[in-house]
User: What shape does this take?
Amino acid sequence: MIYLICALSAIIMTFIGSYWIDKLYESSKEILTFPDKVIQRSRFRKPILLIAFFGLNIHFSKAPSPECFYLVIAAFFLLLVTMTDFEQYLIFDRMILPFTIIGLIAIFHLNLPLNVHVGTALVGGGSFLLISIMSHGALGGGDIKLIAALGIWLGYPRLSQAIIAGCIFAGIAALIMLLTKIKDRKSYFAYGPYFALTAIFILCRFLNLE
Assistant: This one.
């Protein structure tokens, strides 16, 4: 029964998430990096989301009800952020804002230390803003807001762990792309997905689900 519920949930989440992304693309054509390649670059989105949601739903079902609910919600937003950043090099404010608000609700509901999580968000987001300024925009505004939102969800030291692991994986991926000539040194690189995917695993460890 649990597998059936997880499968149905994954199908619904995939449909809603993919539909939402398509609507965001339609209303934001002027800021898309590849406006003429939306269909081409999103052709693998639904199967990837479906498989990811199904696997994560099964894993998260081990958690108590409140934690399970917030884990599924976090995974939903983080996977959608991953998709839009890979597809169009964009992280939408209309995804980050509700993700952050729900994170704040989770803090109160799960009795987590508000000062630690909010402080982590401010320090993390502020640090990435400073890095962006010093690097002349190497990090986009979406990455900065994502890190701040992850600070709300993860707190300290888990945000630091997500950033370090995300940077390592992103660096390895970038090196492989450079060596295989998929990208060159002037190409834009999406960092958001590596932080988002790492955060999902950090959340799993936080709730002792491994």
